Amino acid sequence: MPKLSAGLLLYRTGDAGLEVLIAHPGGPFWARKDDGAWSIPKGEYSAGDDPWETARREFTEELGVQPPDGPRLELGEVRQSGGKVVTGYAVAGDLDITDARSNTFEMEWPPRSGKLQQFPEVDRVDWVSIEEARVKLLKSQLPLLDRLLTAVA
């Protein structure tokens, strides 16, 4: 059974057109990766859990702020390269990310050093245009972006 994950793609429309809020994973593995490394804020859940509630909870944990309330768009599922199945949702809203702060995780770093270090789960979040999101997002999540565009057209 593949791992299950649910995420929330926040979007807004302004003078610059449609923008989405995406997150860069924290930790040493992702430190020097940019294009093709970003993700929608998301997290794992167990079979039987509500993916919508998971998406909202994980958004809050990864950004340190509550997502806006509003009608949700169901973007369906995508399968990431590692096999994880991500259920995506979108909500319209303008969120100030100036004070966004992620929860942390602990891992041994450097490898085999015996030293445990804490890293933010997400080290950056940014509002980006659809064109920039196509470059920044994990390739496997691009269908979520396409489905958002279809839904708001």
Automatic annotation (TrEMBL):
Q: Which residues form the signal peptide?
A: none
Which keywords fit this entry according to its UniProt record? Hydrolase
Tell me the organism.
Answer: Mycolicibacterium tokaiense
Gene Ontology biological process terms from the UniProt entry: AMP biosynthetic process; ATP biosynthetic process
Stretches assigned to the Nudix hydrolase domain: 1-150
List, alphabetically, the InterPro entries matched.
Answer: NUDIX_hydrolase-like_dom_sf (IPR015797), NUDIX_hydrolase_dom (IPR000086), Nudix_hydrolase_domain (IPR051325)
Q: Does the keyword Hydrolase apply?
A: yes
Q: Which domain of life is it from?
A: Bacteria
Q: Which Pfam family, any one, appears in the UniProt record?
A: NUDIX
User: What protein am I looking at?
Assistant: NUDIX hydrolase
